[in-house]
Amino acid sequence: MTSPAIAVLGAGSWGTALAILLARNGHRVRLWGHEPVAMQAMAAAGENTEFLPGIAFPPGLEAVAELDAALAADDLLVVVPSHAFREVLEQIRDRAVALGRIAWGTKGLEMASGKLLHQVAAEVLGEQVACAVVSGPTFAREVARGLPTAATVAAADSATAEHFAGLLRGETFRAYTSTDSIGLELGGAIKNVLAIAAGISDGLGFGANSRAALITRGLVEMMRLGEALGGQRETFMGLSGIGDLVLTCTDDQSRNRRLGLALGAGRTRAEAEAEIRQVVEGADTAREIHNIGRAHAVEMPICEQVYRVLYEGLAPQAAVQALLARDPKPERLG
Ligand SMILES: NC(=O)C1=CN([C@@H]2O[C@H](COP(=O)(O)OP(=O)(O)OC[C@H]3O[C@@H](n4cnc5c(N)ncnc54)[C@H](OP(=O)(O)O)[C@@H]3O)[C@@H](O)[C@H]2O)C=CC1
Ligand SMILES: O=C(CO)COP(=O)(O)O
Question: What value does the mean pLDDT of the chain take?
Fold first, then answer.
């Protein structure tokens, strides 16, 4: 029996890794990216030489340059950066509406509006399309190499979450399900801002104590805003919350952490991003979280200092001093 076709839309490192995972699971997968020349090169090389060099595409994975060819699929998985999310959903709206379901692996908020991605999806696709989000501690290269990984798939209805989790689940990938899409989306967005903070701390030459404090108090900020926006507290203690937070705050594979490291070492954001040459979601997210936190009167001192470093030219050292100079208070986890 031939397994159904899945379109993975977005051929960066994470889209490619998920496409490889799905193909290894025995699905027929079409990986689409918006640069025809890059997609043709990928098809010819049998690997994504730009983002995941050295990892050969398994049988069943086809790189395509034509969106229509990709969309002739039974399932759609969107894995573009958040800045391209609405635009890509608009391009695939008719097919998503016809299928009645869609999933994404994008982490972040819509730039300028600060909307969660399921809100963007509802605006573009309507309320009838069931939406699932995939999130967790999942560095693309490790997933593509087949290293054991766990993540969560959330959707408002558990059947949709289970459907997409079932596609992803395999010998090396454990997919849990959840109905807390808000919690998953906020965890995946806020951890990127906190990874920048951890990177700044390490870039300044601080130690393990500082990093552990940032992770712990950062988790409190994530839970505070997450609960204020309707997420469930326990979600932030799971893979898409503390799991992804620890991953990206502690390992240099994280682009967000590397941006922070560079800032802490005295480089500018532009210099750091030019060197990383991949999407660094936390930089835009820091501004949206700053706005949302203020609008909901949620105290988020670490995220606030990251915002000030990125958008107000505050020196990283001064940001740390501002955190340490805050009024003493009892340790609360809410
Ligand atoms: N990498 C990882 O380990 C993980 C990433 N994620 C999330 O997945 C999302 C994608 O990240 P990732 O793949 O790593 O990013 P990359 O920087 O590796 O790749 C981004 C890809 O998106 C493409 N792109 C940019 N604009 C558009 C557009 N308008 N239409 C279609 N494609 C576009 C880029 O093309 P071009 O190069 O031509 O600009 C590039 O191929 C992010 O939200 C990230 O946070 C989630 C979990 C793990
Ligand atoms: O989200 C990720 C891993 O779960 C990737 O993190 P970075 O975008 O910081 O590299």
Answer: 97
- Does the CB atom of residue 308 touch ligand 2 within 6 A? no
Q: What is the dihedral of CA 273, 290, 199, 226, to 10 degrees?
A: -120
Count up the domains in the chain and report the number.
2
Query: pLDDT per residue over 103-154, tens digit each?
Result: 999 999 999 999 999 999 999 999 999 999 999 999 999 999 999 999 999 9
pLDDT of residue 2: 61
φ and ψ at residue 279, rounded to 5 degrees? -65, 135
Q: What is the DSSP letter of 237?
A: G
- Among residues 253, 295, 188, the alpha carbon closest in space to that of 17 is found at 253
Q: Which residues of the chain have a pLDDT value below 70?
A: 1-2
Query: In this predicted structure, what is the pLDDT of residue 1?
Result: 46
In a domain, 331, yes or no: no
Choosing from 202, 240, 248 the residue with most ligand 2 atoms within 8 A of its CB, the one to mutate for a pocket test is 248
| Mutate-to-test residue for ligand 2 from 16, 139, 249, highest number of ligand atoms within 8 A of CB | 139
Same domain? For 211 and 192 the reply is yes
Which structural domain range is residue 18 located in?
5-179
Q: Are 107 and 79 in contact (CB under 8 A)?
A: no
- Residue 95, token pair as written in the block: 């097919």
Query: Taking the CA of residue 260 as centre, how many other CA atoms within 13 Å lie in the half-sphere pointing to its CB?
Result: 39
Beta bridge partners of 134: 153
Whether the model pTM is above 0.95? yes
Domain assignment present for 330: no
* Claim to verify: residue 147 and residue 247 sit in the same structural domain: no
Q: What is the pLDDT of residues 205-249, one digit of tens each?
A: 999 999 999 999 999 999 999 999 999 999 999 999 999 999 999
Query: 284 and 190: one domain?
Result: yes
| 268 is annotated as contributing to ligand binding | no
Are residues 155 and 13 located together in one domain of the fold? yes
Last residue in a domain, options 125, 153, 179: 179
Q: How far is the CA of 290 from the centre of ligand 2 (A)?
A: 20
- Residue whose CA lies nearest to ligand 1 atom number 8: 106
